[in-house]
Amino acid sequence: MRICVVDDEKEVRTSIIQKLYALFPDIEVFDVGFGQQAVQEIQFIRPDVVLLDIRMPIINGLDMLQWIKENFSQIYVIIISGYDDFEYAKKALHFGALDYMLKPVNRKELKETIHKIEHHQVERFLQEIQVCFMKSMVSAFSFQDVQIIPKQVSFWFDERIPKKLQLKMDSLSLNNESGKVSSAPIIFSYSINDIIKGDCIISDELDGTPIFREKEDFFEQLQMQYEKSIQLRFFEVSALDQLSLHDDRDKMHQLASLRNRMLDEARNNNMEQVQCYLNEWFSVIEKIPYRMLIKESAYLLAILDEGFTKPKLIVVDDDLLHYWMSWVAKHVTFTHLRHHMKSLVIRSLQEWIRIEVEQDMGEQTQWFDKAFYIIESSKDLNINLEAVAEMVGVHPVTLSRMFKQKVGINFIQYLTNRRLETAKELIVATDKKIMDIALEIGYSDYPYFRNLFKKRYHESPSDYRKKHAKSIEV
């Protein structure tokens, strides 16, 4: 924390500074004099707190207070005075002063006031972090996945200070090859899903790692570092230069070609050839970047819902693709994903072929009716495809395809419709935070929910509430 002391008496400034250092050895305190010198120093230092005498020559305390609040509204101003003047105190508080203290400044009162400011700063910091996330386009994790632990948060508010993220895995920094953890001041610590941990620190700009100054850039940097760590863990390596990942078009064409061949062979009930193409598909996909791998894997799973009935060039619904991307991203390593996905793909194709060949509509209707009843009667909108499929004893993709056949849309689309209708009702009829509503209906990824809602109703959730909200009785 940085504090400027403004008073026309040198002895008073010195006394206050000595008390501050005695109470808070780690803070920075600046003797900025008074008048125009104080104005210039405050402009340069951008302190967190100004202790300001109210009666001074050249520029009096009230005028300086107004100037501070007009130019640096985030600065906390504490008025100090040798006069117990209620009218001055009233005006000072009206102009934005946080508190009013009488000279000589009492140590206990000074300590309590600085602690109060620290508490205010932490609250403001946490609010700003949430606002920054809402404005960001982060898709790798949700805000609820991030735990923030404030440290020296006063540095957060100064956008002149370069900052960087020191992301750790297994207690080692991933920002530099040596693995050494920086000793720079920690602004705050964070963890994502209790797996990835790190610190936001002040950067010296000399080590070549990405930095940010503006608050809105924090989550973009965090997503980049998070994805880097996830890739290291996913591909089971200690450094990204051990990977040979390429996002060239040839590999995308290879994946599309192998995907279509798999479907063709599945239509011909040639499961041995499907397995060969699937193994080849995995040998190609492990050579592309993590984010593309997630999307391509999800795309293959999504088209299993449509593969026997639509042409080879398939446009997959966003909500269906998002569902399977979330499913793929849950796998910690590529080895785990490959094993689980192979089983899922082969079993789903075998099951669907069996159903088409046997055409036992009585049995299909029986388990489908049971599944439909479970979904319709469930009040838990976090219910998922795998859970319902397990309850009725069928493969998840089989259930989704049967939904398409019976209802006209697949399971994910049906559940999305229910969720959005419930969200619309809650937005209009309650005063719950929209982010909390998104969580309640099963969307931890708020930006995705916001975009989905806007696509469906042609208005953002907040705009929809403004236009349609009912008055809430307290």
Task: Describe this protein's structure.
Helix content is 55%, strand content 11%. With 474 residues, it is α/β, with parallel strands linked by helices. The chain has a 5-stranded parallel sheet with strand order 2-1-3-4-5, sandwiched between helices. Strands 6-9-10-7-8 form a 5-stranded antiparallel sheet, covered by helices on one side. Helix 7 packs antiparallel against helix 8. The two termini are 40 Å apart.
Give the overall average pLDDT: 82
Structural class: alpha/beta
The helix count comes to 18
Tell me the series of helices and strands, N- to C-terminal. EHEHEHEHEHEEEEEHHHHHHHHHHHHH
Shape: elongated
Write the layout of secondary structure elements.
Layout: E1 2-6, H1 10-23, E2 28-31, H2 35-45, E3 49-53, H3 61-71, E4 76-81, H4 86-94, E5 99-102, H5 107-135, E6 146-150, E7 163-169, E8 172-173, E9 186-192, E10 196-202, H6 218-234, H7 249-267, H8 271-285, H9 290-303, H10 318-329, H11 334-358, H12 361-377, H13 385-392, H14 396-407, H15 411-429, H16 434-440, H17 446-457, H18 461-468
Parallel strand pairs: 1-2, 1-3, 3-4, 4-5
Antiparallel strand pairs: 6-9, 7-8, 7-10, 9-10
